[in-house]
């Protein structure tokens, strides 16, 4: 991998920050002849037949709702900047959810600005334009197009996103001169925040962030379609894993992680979160993402993974699979208890129900089984009142799902956890039982067994739909499914 050299000092670049030069680059500079040569001889590549993005109508409606909520105020929503991974390499960029939700754009350094008008807001999307060919930026800058690829011109961006586009490099200066009330989504673009530092307050900015989070509680038809795409790809990713469990046994959990990642990258944008490929006692570590342990016949594999679509919507599905294709008697007993708890939880998902209802329903079933097995002293009401089941259940039974795997996280408690389910909400139902390898309060044979079953549930007008129902859940169905794939 090579890195671009410093731009020559020209009238076009004299007032700009010079391009960062690698200390040990092989070329000390650029001759006048080469600089002149690189200015010309390039075809016109402007794209003239672009169509609006698929969700253009939806993003416009979202901006209209945002405008109505904050009349007379300037609203600034940044995409964010590249983040350094090490030295001169960056992490793959993912735009902020707030920005992508309102625009559909996913490029670094982008900013949506909504300027107040007498009847709403004037919207502008600020982006980096095409790399400058006259001053050599396109081939000398490390982020120039010959290094990282072509980006859309501002005219092309306007066609795709349905928003007037301007050069983002002019925005910070304009914001410094801005007057009137301003709100910004914090945490993504330090330069934009610095330009607004004397114009915003943390309290007002938090109100903007909370509103944008609560907007996403109910999904529109486009979002539901994208979530179904994500789930369908995830189902195929789980099938891929089952087919190569023998190779995972010969290597490690990393083989499972890599297998699922291939499906995510081929059919989507990425994985929606770090895949949990937890075999044996690692299944008892809720967020086991090291994925460097052995995969052994006779153990269980807890696979918690989700494909993220190109529009950032992610699935979140978990299955706990017998590595050799058959549950032992004890594994099946524990698995079936979790399955029954999930069944109770899913049945409680319906419009008008309290958000907490599905959690309470699943926890009751798990508490009943723990009492029945003699692992905790009853009665069940006492166990639930004191939360004693939590030693082995540990986590909540689900969460909202969307562009974030834990979507709508900034929403107010009264509208989320203490809220009421409505059609269009999508959430996970994922009870689990986890018997830690060092838990001396349970019989030895339980220790090291962890089971979770998770599905993505859409609240409908008359109940719910399991978006991930294509993956078997019942223990006998899981065994038959695995046998068919391995067969």
TrEMBL record:
Alphabetized, the UniProt keywords read:
Aminopeptidase, Hydrolase, Manganese, Metal-binding, Protease
Q: Which cofactor does it need?
A: Mn(2+)
- Give GO terms: molecular function aspect only: aminopeptidase activity
Q: Entry's SUPFAM superfamilies?
A: Creatinase/aminopeptidase, Creatinase/prolidase N-terminal domain
**Entry's CDD domains?**
Prolidase
- For region Disordered, the annotated ranges are 1-29
Domain (Aminopeptidase P N-terminal): residue spans on this chain: 54-193
Name the SMART domains on file. Answer: AMP_N
Kindly report, in one word, the top-level EC class recorded for this enzyme.
Answer: hydrolase
Q: Name one Pfam family in it.
A: Peptidase_M24
| InterPro entries (UniProt xref) | Aminopep_P_N, Creatin/AminoP/Spt16_N, Creatinase/aminopeptidase-like, Pept_M24, Peptidase_M24B_aminopep-P_CS, X-Pro_dipept-like
Q: Where is the composition biased (Acidic residues)?
A: 1-16
Position of the signal peptide: none
Q: Which reaction does it catalyse?
A: Release of any N-terminal amino acid, including proline, that is linked to proline, even from a dipeptide or tripeptide
Entry's EC annotation: 3.4.11.9
Similarity section: Belongs to the peptidase M24B family.
Q: What protein name applies here?
A: Xaa-Pro aminopeptidase
> Origin organism of this chain?
Streptomyces althioticus subsp. attaecolombicae
């Amino acid at each position: 991998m090579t890195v671009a050299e410093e731009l020559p000092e020209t009238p076009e670049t004299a007032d700009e920050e010079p391009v960062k030069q690698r200390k040990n680059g092989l070329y000390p500079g650029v001759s006048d002849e080469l600089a002149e040569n690189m200015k010309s001889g390039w075809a016109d590549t402007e794209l003239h037949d672009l169509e609006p993005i698929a969700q253009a109508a939806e993003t416009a409606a979202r901006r209209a709702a945002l405008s109505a909520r904050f009349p007379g105020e300037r609203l600034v929503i940044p995409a964010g900047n590249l983040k350094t991974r090490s030295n001169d390499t960056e992490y793959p960029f993912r735009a902020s959810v707030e920005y992508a939700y309102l625009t559909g754009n996913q490029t670094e350094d982008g900013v949506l600005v909504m300027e107040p008008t007498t009847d709403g807001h004037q919207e502008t999307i600020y982006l980096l334009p095409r790399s400058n060919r006259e001053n050599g930026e396109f081939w000398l800058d490390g982020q120039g197009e010959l290094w990282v690829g072509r980006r859309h011109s501002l005219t092309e961006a306007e066609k795709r996103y349905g928003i007037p586009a301007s050069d983002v490099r002019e925005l910070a200066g304009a914001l410094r001169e801005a007057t009137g009330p301003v709100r910004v989504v914090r945490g993504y673009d330090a330069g934009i925040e610095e330009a607004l530092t004397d114009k915003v307050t943390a309290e007002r900015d938090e109100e903007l962030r909370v509103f944008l989070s609560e907007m996403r509680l109910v999904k529109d038809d486009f979002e539901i379609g994208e979530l179904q795409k994500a789930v369908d790809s995830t189902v195929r990713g789980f099938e891929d894993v089952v087919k190569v469990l023998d190779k995972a046994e010969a290597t490690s959990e990393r083989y499972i992680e890599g297998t699922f990642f291939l499906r995510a990258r081929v059919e989507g944008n990425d994985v929606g979160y770090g895949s949990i490929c937890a075999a044996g006692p690692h299944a008892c570590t809720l967020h086991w993402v090291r994925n460097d342990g052995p995969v052994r016949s006779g153990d269980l594999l807890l696979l918690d993974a989700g494909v993220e679509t190109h529009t950032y919507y992610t699935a979140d599905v978990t299955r706990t699979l017998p590595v050799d294709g058959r549950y032992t008697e004890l594994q099946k007993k524990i698995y079936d208890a979790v399955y029954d708890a999930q069944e109770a939880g899913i049945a409680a998902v319906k419009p008008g129900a309290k958000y907490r209802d599905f959690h309470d329903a699943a926890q009751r079933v798990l508490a009943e089984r723990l009492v029945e097995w003699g692992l905790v002293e009853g009665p069940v009401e006492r166990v639930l009142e004191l939360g004693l089941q939590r030693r082995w259940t540990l986590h909540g039974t689900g969460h909202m799902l969307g562009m974030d795997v834990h979507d709508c996280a900034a929403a107010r408690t009264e509208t989320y956890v203490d809220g009421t389910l409505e059609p269009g909400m999508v959430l996970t139902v994922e009870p689990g039982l986890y018997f830690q390898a060092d838990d001396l309060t349970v019989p030895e044979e339980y220790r090291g067994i962890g089971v979770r079953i998770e599905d993505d549930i859409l609240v409908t007008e008359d109940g719910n739909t399991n978006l991930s129902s294509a993956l078997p859940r019942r223990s006998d169905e899981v065994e038959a499914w695995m046998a068919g794939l391995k067969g």
